[in-house]
Amino acid sequence: MKKITNHTQISKALDISPFQNLLETKKLDLYSVQKGEFIVHHLVPLENLYFLLSGKAKIKMTHENGKVSLIDFISAPSYIGELTLLGVEDSPKDVIAHTNGVLLAVPLKENQTRLLENASFMRDLAVFLGKKALHRTETLTESLNLPFSTRLARFILMTEEEGFYFEKHTEVAEYLHVSYRHLLFVLHEFTKEGLLEKASRGYKIKNYTALLKK
């Protein structure tokens, strides 16, 4: 991640964040992040509460046997590290930039008590966590009730980057609770129907409208 030192940019970022009127610019940092960069690594203690101002990120979990699972995707605006702030997660999960983005970093050591004691901030965080829980519940319900073609179409639209879909088949199959073979079969069907076109790396989305109607 690259630190942004322009004070005007930092002030503007603070003004559109939940930390407005709560923290001074000197108490936080602003970073730009490139696609594929780690924002949080599970082997490195989390020292900051992040707030994603633009871009998307993916959350992954590394199991004891070394296997890595795709857990979720997040889009700006979004907190990163809120469970560590609340003291309910000792070992963070990997958070990796899915697209280029910008995020604020609030050092936990200096600001944790102040944040936890601020009623307005905690109310905002509670709403965020509530929406996050609802989203995961809805995703689980969809996985049990909707046809796989519908779920895959929605996943492609959620993760697309400038008209292309690049996700790894193994991760997607596990995330969507389907076999690798069936995932490839449905992707092939989408290409035959003209929804997607095989590219050198991933797929090009040819028909957004048809994907939305799946």
UniProtKB/TrEMBL annotation:
Residues 10-93 form the Cyclic nucleotide-binding domain. Transmembrane segments: none annotated. InterPro entries: cNMP-bd_dom, cNMP-bd_dom_sf, HTH_CRP, RmlC-like_jellyroll, WH_DNA-bd_sf. One of its GO terms (biological process) is regulation of DNA-templated transcription. GO terms for molecular function: DNA binding. Keywords: Activator, DNA-binding, Transcription, Transcription regulation. This is Transcriptional regulator YeiL. It comes from Listeria fleischmannii.
